[in-house]
Amino acid sequence: METNNSKGTASPSQLIDARIAELNDWRGTVLSRLRTVIQEALPDVVEEWKWRGVPVWYHDGMICTGESYKSVVKLTFAKGAALEDPSNLFNSSLEGNVRRAIDFHEGDTINVKALKALVRAAALHNRSTAKK
Fold first, then answer.
1. pTM
2. N or C: which end of the chain has fewer CB within 10 A?
């Protein structure tokens, strides 16, 4: 793995690349596709690596995390409860007051247009609620 400094630490983007590669199954493919959709929706999105192995995307605040489990890839929106979801993408963590998530299972189709709209809405929400 390439490193980004003399201490030998990998960048968040490199760590996400490595996670996708190590999954080596449908979960890696889905996580990679979700990452691409997020980057297409917000070309200046910032990638981070948190909590010992969770990809996180930021734009004026946290947008979402991308977690991989045995039977699901979960995209959790930090402030998802505040977002309109006209395409009903949220299908997990619906009981909370703040977060909402989308669980992707093997074989699921990604509604790219709706997901991009949701990602942009999250960034807009972050911008509108940021402390000045």
1. 0.90
2. C
